[in-house]
Structures are given as C-alpha cells and as structure tokens.
UniProtKB/TrEMBL annotation, chain A:
Cellular compartment(s): Cell membrane
Source organism (scientific name): Peribacillus loiseleuriae
GO cellular component terms listed in the entry, alphabetical order: plasma membrane
Name of protein: ABC transporter
Membrane topology term: Peripheral membrane protein
Record has Cell membrane as a keyword: yes
Keyword Thylakoid: no
Record-annotated ABC transporter domain positions: 6-242
GO molecular function, one term: ATP binding
GO biological process: iron ion transport
Keywords from the UniProt entry: ATP-binding, Cell membrane, Ion transport, Iron, Iron transport, Membrane, Nucleotide-binding, Transport
Amino acid sequence: MCEIKINVKDITLSYGDSTVIDSLNLAIPKGKITVFIGRNGCGKSTLLHAIARLLKPQTGSVFLDDRNILKMKSKEVAKKLAILPQSPIAPEGVTVEQLVKQGRYPYQSTFKQWTMEYETALNHALTVTNMTELKDRNVYELSGGQRQRAWIALNLAQNTDTILLDEPTTYLDLTHQIEILDLLYDLNREENRTIVMVLHDINLACRYADHLVAIKNQKVYCQGAPEKMITRENIEHIYGLKCRIGVDSQFGTPICFPDGKGRKIN
Amino acid sequence: MANRWIIRSENEKLSFFMIKKEVYKTIAVLVSLLLVVLLGLIVGIDMIPIHDVINYLFNLAPIENDFALGELRLPRVLSGMVVGASLAVAGLIVQGIIRNPLASPDVIGVTSGASVAAVLFLTYLSDSMGVQWTPVFAVIGAIITFFIIYLFSLHPSITANRIVLIGIGLASLANALIMYILVMSASFSSERAYLWLIGSLYGVSWLETISSFVSFIVLFIIIMWSKRKFELYSYGDAVAMQLGLNLKRFRILFLFFSSLLCGLSVAVAVGIGFIGLLTPHISRRIVRNHTSLLFITTAGIGAILVLLADWIARIAFQPLDIPAGVFTSGIGAPFFIYLLIKKRNSL
Ligand SMILES: Nc1ncnc2c1ncn2[C@@H]1O[C@H](COP(=O)(O)OP(=O)(O)OP(=O)(O)O)[C@@H](O)[C@H]1O
Ligand SMILES: [Mg+2]
C-alpha cells in the first residue's frame, strides 16, 4: 500500500437540510493522480470543496499529511494545497501575469510584495504552463484552453504539492482537453505533485488516473485502479447506463462504449 | 523588464512591483487634480492671481484677497476633495464587496442612513452635546445601515442585484424618516438640520475641513494596508478562500471602512450623489492591474469630479450658489439608468 496524502474521515456534507455526502471515508494516495467520477449532482464538487476547506463539514474531518486542515491556519493550508474551482471568473481587465501573481498571496505581506523568490515561482508557473508569451494579455482575450492554463498557473505559483481541480477540461475542445491533462500528468510525474480532479470523460479518466473514485448515494461506491474498476456492472451501477468495455490499443486502458440509440452501419 | 518597475531593498524586507504605464496614468490623474484645485482657488466671483495664491499657500507674502482665499475658497476646495475622495473610495469598496457595479453607498441607502442619524442628532441632541459630534453620528448611522444590508446579503436567495433594490427601499425609508423628523421637531432645531441637509460646500469651517482631511488621510492609509485582500477578493469567493482569505472577516472590515468614509463625507456635505457610483467606473478603466494605484486614482478622480461640480455650481449661476450635488446627480442619475439598462438581463 502506498502513502496517503489526504485522509477523509467520516465526513458528512449538506446544504441546509439536504445531505449530499453522508459519513464518507476516503484515502487519497500521495504522488498519484486521483479522479472522481459520478453522475451530475452526486456531490463530487461538494466533496472536493470540503477537502479544500472551502466548505465546512457537518461532521468528520479532513487530514492533510495527518494534520486536520480545519485546525490549521488558512494561509498555511494554502501553501500545501491548491484548488481550481469549476469555471472561475477573473476580474475584468486583468492580465495573465496579474492573475497568476495572486497565487503568491499566502506568502506575501504588506511590504514584502515581490521578492526574487516570488518572481522565480511566477516565472516557473508561466513556463510550465507555456503562458510566458501571453503574460501581458488580458485574460478575457484568451481562448478557453489558454485561460484554463492561466488558472492552473495560478495554482502552480502557489507552489503546493497537492492540487485539486474541478472539471478542468469542461468547455474545452479535444486538443485543449489533452493539452491540459498532459500538463497535469507532467506535473504529477515530473514534479511528483498529488493531483485530485473531477472528470466527466471516463475514457480520459481511465487513461490519466492512477486511482479512480466513484461517488454514488452520498458515499464512495467503489474505487481502485481504472483497469480493475471499470466493468460493465460498475458502470451500470454508477451511471445507470448499460455499456460495453473495450481497450485502448495504444494505452491499454479501458474504454467505455455506452449503449443507446444512434446510427448503425453494417 | 521594460514595462515595469520592481523595487527591492537589499534584504528584501521591502519589495514592490509596478507597471510603468499605470504609474504614469496615476500621476496624470494627480496632476489634473492639482490643476482643478488651482482652478477652484483662482477663478471665482473675482479672480485671484496665481502668484497671490502661491504667496498665500507658502506664506511668502501678504496678499490682498486673503479672506476670500483663506476663509472661503481654500476650506471649500479642501473639503470638496475630501467629500469626493471619500465617496469614490467608499463606492469602489462597496462595488467590490457586493461584486456589483450598480452599487454605491448612496444607491444602497447608506448615505441616507447616515443622514438620518445626523438629522436625529442635530434636532434632538446637538443643543446639549454640541454640533461637532455630527460626524460621529453620521458614521454610526452609516454602520447601522451597512449592517442591515449585510444581514440581508447573508440570505442565500438575495443576489447581489437584489441588494441594490433593498438598498433603494432603505434609502426611501430613510428619506421619509428625515422628513418626519423635520416636520415633527421644533422649528429652530429642524432649521439647523435642514440647512445641513441641503448643505452645499459653502461656508465649511476650517475646523471641519482640517479634521475631515486628516481623518480621510488616516483612513486611506489604513485601507491601503489591507488592499491586497481587496484585490484577492475580486477573483471570486472560492479562489480567495483557497488562498487563505477569511471572507467574512474581510467583508465586515471593508464595510466598516466604507461606513467610516461615508459618514465622513456626509458630515461635511450631504446630497452629493452618484460620485461613489460613477468614479470607480472611470478609475477601473484607467488602472486595472495595481490595487494601490487604483485606490489612489479613484480618490483623485472622485475629488476632481466634486471640485468641478462645485466650481460650476459656484460660477455659472452667480450670484446664486447652487449645491454641487445638483450637478453630480445631473450626470450620475442618467449614468445609473444607463447601467441598469445595460445590466437588465442579470437583475
Ligand atoms: N451552494 C449550494 N446550495 C445548495 N445546494 C447545492 C449547492 N451546491 C450544490 N448543491 C446541491 O448539492 C448536490 C451536489 O452538488 P455538486 O455540485 O457537488 O455535484 P457534482 O457531482 O459536482 O455535479 P456536476 O457533475 O454537475 O458538477 C446537488 O444536488 C446540488 O443541487
Ligand atoms: Mg461539479
């Protein structure tokens, strides 16, 4: 068994009276890519937010490297764990560089606004995400993929060894989806960062995830390596949809072909 | 790098980052402010030559018109600056916190709340306590109104735009209250309140001027101390929170700052409308990537707008002295309607 980065213990999350997650337990492996899947509205974003202490649990707690994050200082957590929320919105008129600089907030103080170290972190974040040339551009003048890379750069400037991302590929075309996922893959394999994200594309999830977690009925329905976990039965239970499972001829990872209607060619 | 300045002390205890273009633009705004100030000092019912103004300001030589300059124009110009800058910065803060470009202290009713408290004080308490306490009560009124609006905003179904509507309701309520107080109270004390309410910038005293000027500067410095929080907050709740900002504490702190600014401006002159709404729209176009400079530019433009309005009010209708608020509202109200129409889809 590998090392645990984040330990979610007995967590219950609700909005008002409606419970979304009910005494859920989950261990997220260190230095791996973990992907949450599940139907719309099953609580993936809610769980991700609670892990990043954006949402207070009714009961239970979240441990980051065996420390309870609710008992840590918020800025201290911000140096260890970053989250990219689903479709974040930048203020009007800011440049990419200005956006990425926000990632240094937990390190800054009133008079220490821009040390060499901050600049190095910023430049590293821009280089890795391939945004250096676009740094003076207005965020609103970027393509969807470029904008998403800018936000990821913000998380990188934060210099945390854990990054959570909520549907980082939504609204992106296939090229940009792969571009973002490749970037995250490199961050994981080359810089050994723990990545946790929500994805809706099961096939891509199988290809990039070391560990897959399916959420259903307010709990973890099942989890494990994609090649073990993705079976006809499991998909049917998670999504309520029949499908056939194949194998990607290049990667050897599972591929899911959903049943349903459509054209048939003989 | 070419388009920026990076300032670092040797041990890096101090380190700052600025984009040159935005620094230049801010300086341009401050220079314009200086010109408008000079305009207000020189041009009035009669002209005071610029060398006389300089002689007076730097105490170089005695001048002929020292009463008109020293007792009338100078306090008027200085307190006009304070009113404009306070309202503008308060507007910038309120728009930032509610994340709504339609908001400003007067639109959401805070100015009216401050006025109610001040009028209450002037009619019932000023005889026993002394008129100089008016600003304190204006500030208390502003804080109470902000607090009511903040309580409303905690309710999940209240969107940012609805807060504006609630504020408009609160403002009419406050105005009705003022009318009621004026009608019900003894005529001599209500007259004092009435004079203050329509108060143009005419005849502000040196004491008022100096105390409001100093309060503004102190407050501005304190706000700049936390401006980094203000910037981060504009990136959305989730992003700000994940980077370690305590949202609740931040909102209360900044609403408190803008209450103080509102109370400050109301204490000097009431009824200068729409500066808080209008100014941030101009300044955010000028400075986009540097929060300190944005605050300075906002204060500068707010001061310029009020000074110009007051100057026109003073010059154009001689011998009448029309309150400056007539002009700021004249420009501000149509602009507000324009914003409402432009943003109607999100209401
Ligand atoms: N702020 C909120 N207030 C009240 N209910 C909410 C809130 N956010 C989410 N919910 C509800 O909680 C449930 C879980 O939402 P969540 O966003 O976590 O789902 P999700 O798995 O991320 O869905 P999706 O795949 O569509 O992003 C949903 O039923 C949703 O309606
Ligand atoms: Mg979601």
